[in-house]
Amino acid sequence: MGFVSSGFVVAVVVLLSSSVLCNGGITSSFVRKVEKTIDMPFHSDVFSVPPGYNAPQQVHITQGDHEGKAMIVSWVTMEEPGSSTVSYWSENSKHKNKAMGNFNTYKYYNYTSGYIHHCTLRNLKFDTKYFYEVGIGQTPRTFWFVTPPAVGPDVPYTFGLIGDLGQTYDSNSTLTHYEHNPIVGKAVLYVGDLSYADNHPNHDNVKWDTWGRFVERSTAYQPWIWTTGNHEIDYAPEIGESVPFKPFTHRYRTPHKASNSSDPFWYSIKRASAYVIVLSSYSAYGMYTPQYQWLYEELPKVNRSETPWLIVLVHSPWYNSYKYHYMEGESMRVMYEPWFVQYKVDIVFAGHVHAYERSERVSNIAYNIVNGICRPVSDQSAPVYITIGDGGNIEGLATIMTEPQPEYSAFREASFGHAVLDIKNRTHAYYAWHRNQDGDSVKGDALWIFNRYWHQIDDSTTSRSG
Fold this sequence. Notes:
Blueprint: H1 2-17, E1 19-21, E2 26-28, E3 57-63, E4 71-77, E5 85-90, E6 97-100, E7 102-104, E8 107-108, E9 111-112, E10 115-121, E11 129-134, E12 141-146, E13 157-162, H2 169-180, E14 187-190, H3 206-219, E15 224-226, H4 246-251, E16 267-271, E17 274-278, H5 290-298, E18 309-313, H6 330-342, E19 347-350, E20 356-359, E21 362-363, E22 377-378, E23 384-388, E24 409-413, E25 417-423, E26 428-435, E27 445-450
Parallel strand pairs: 2-24, 13-14, 14-15, 17-18, 18-19, 19-23
Antiparallel strand pairs: 1-2, 3-4, 4-10, 5-6, 5-11, 7-10, 8-9, 11-12, 13-25, 16-17, 20-23, 20-24, 21-22, 25-26, 26-27
């Protein structure tokens, strides 16, 4: 405990020594050079098509069940369907298993997709390295992944956090920094907005293909847990496209049925000592909607003796002190925040705002027509809210902040970057945010986070005034 406390104090001292204090928490003194954010050109190496006839490309994996013993493998073939079979085997094993998948295609305006394959590998062993092969019979490609350890209360595990990535030079810097981080992430919690294809004329779906090839160097080797953002909606009736989320639903799978969800955009998974709930900011979430009813039934199922860490992913942040997308998440906050406090959610990660911000533990649930109280207050049963929509997309940084900094805002900075959440046991997790401009091991914001169920002590990082 002494080690944890001293580490926590050091982290806070580092933050205070390099930042400017204001009414709320800390507005970083680091000023990123303002420059135009542009997509990498089509001929960039990161977009290279793998050699060979009908070679699989855009390979990505995600968890395929509730507990981590299945993996969904997805890829695209361009010339013809080819095989949807995946061959896989554990390290040091000579026996190869085979799983049969299927494929689909879609049209979007004047674009026709390649053949998009999905195959679920089941009954995997925990904490085991597996190799897998796709493209059987034509141009096979081999990748690998490591399954998580069995679910348990003191099982350590490290998540990466990325959001609003896109495919610019800054996006490449973000992904490279994540890959080189000495705190090695084993799975990515992705908080929405993937390719930004809809920022191009007619929602140019070729950008979905280039993005898939760009991130393959990570997504083929560790699962990315998907959250949908506004740039996945792709609703464009002016060009005849009136089905929301069309490209995303064809290209990306989630294990929503394993948690009794009726929709792939909201679901839950267990992974090591964490229970991760994914919500959709852009699907109906009001009272009596399917998402509302699912979350109402889901939260009581979380057994904190089995999975102490309760993490929620959304796209639109509930606490945001930037002028971009200000209060866009307010109606969802009003609906669900009382539940998050009741069930002691540890952390809520969001994207959407293209910058970084971390809140103190606050809630704003005291208002009613009698007392009229309507402002965030310190609440040690509330989550820490972290906005990490700073992946580096084409829309650029959110640089205009509200002043003075509100009391609920603990740290904010307009920079691109990524974060890691290193869960140690049922009581402690180490969190660190890394900006792209620094060396791989440099932390722009870091703190120890104490579990709300097992170790509910004050882990705020700024003193409050008034």
